[in-house]
Amino acid sequence: MRILTGGYTPDMGGVGEGIGEVVAGARDEALAGGQLHFSGTVAAAQSPSWIAKHPTLDVVYAALEGRGVVQAFRRVSETSFVTLGRPVEAGELTCHIAVAPDASALAVSCWGDGRVLRMPLDSSGVPRERQLLPAAIDPYGTGVPVNSGAQEEPESEIEQARRALRDAAGAEYADLLAAEEPPPFIDENRSDDLKLFDDSEEADAASRASRAHQVRYLPHGLVVTVDMGYDLVRFWRHGADGQLQFAQQVVFPRGSGPRHTVWHQSGHLYVITELSHEVFVLAPNAMGTWRIVSSVAFGGGLLDTDTAAELAPSRDGAFLYAGVRGSNTIASLRVDGAGESVSAIALVDAGVNWPRHHAVVRDTLLIAGQLSDEVASLSLDDRTGIPGRVRHRVDVASPTCLLPLR
């Protein structure tokens, strides 16, 4: 199997040269458990810290983080890509790209200035113009109500969203969208979960900054964006003109730092928090409004200075894997019930230093060790969901992203 790697180059303190390629076993193999081999740099680029693939074309998109731009690359040979079109300005420290399933556009997020953008794609996969989405507002620094905007949509649009979300959940999980709104999730150990306002003197907006970290396309035209700095998860839907329109937001506990998301086949959205080391479960209520329904910590054994990174599901969606930088571990979590809750089951050694990103390919967990300059593979037990020891490893300079070419 071929795996493209993104990483940091000297402009961002790394030692990489651009987009690389790792081969697990044979190049055309569907599994990733074989010996790892680094084929080399397939496209020279400055700090392509995140890469994403076009759904139908041999085109990949890179967030050139230090330059604050998005660059498309086209494959021209088995081991080589060339630039496709000009770089498109995004924002300060561009860090994540998602490609629409219908290849109509890219969604881009920027860590440095909190920008979130939509970039339409032409038929050859080249990003053209930009739509800059409305900036996030800090709910803990301005007195903005929690989940603001969720009740402002016309009823017809709410009903449309409700039907779409019911379709996404499927008949098996239709009870999640019951006619009566469920009671709000309350964590008795957190007194701040249900605060509608925070107007205390300590809520100093100047001490917090918007940090957009990830974008994800959800079924039926929804898009979710995560703002780690403002503790926000925002939802968007496509308007008649194809542009994204704000739908609602969910406010997380202050300082939790939502970072990345996983869409689950049950219709739930799982969110990993970088600073509080938790996974939150979000689901829509009867009106189609998203809300937190449960959360779980990774468990004991973590350091106060640890920061969570990626969250990835097992191939059957029964387990989740959370990377933790600092203690350099992988937290394994089990999806319970109909997807409405998650339980921590194990914390294992990642086998690398600073597990920035990881990906699951069937029975193998591939991990990018940013500070140990390597990619490692761990075997996964389908029955228990717990990763084993490192199976193989290979030297890769400053890896930050893994993109298996399935």
Automatic annotation (TrEMBL):
Span of the signal peptide: none
A molecular-function term among this protein's GO annotations: isomerase activity
Top-level lineage group: Bacteria
The keyword Isomerase is assigned to this record: yes
Gene3D superfamilies for the chain: YVTN repeat-like/Quinoprotein amine dehydrogenase
Entry keyword Isomerase: yes
Keywords, in A-Z order: Isomerase
Family: Belongs to the cycloisomerase 2 family.
Protein name as it appears in the record: 6-phosphogluconolactonase (Cycloisomerase 2 family)
Protein source organism: Microbacterium halimionae
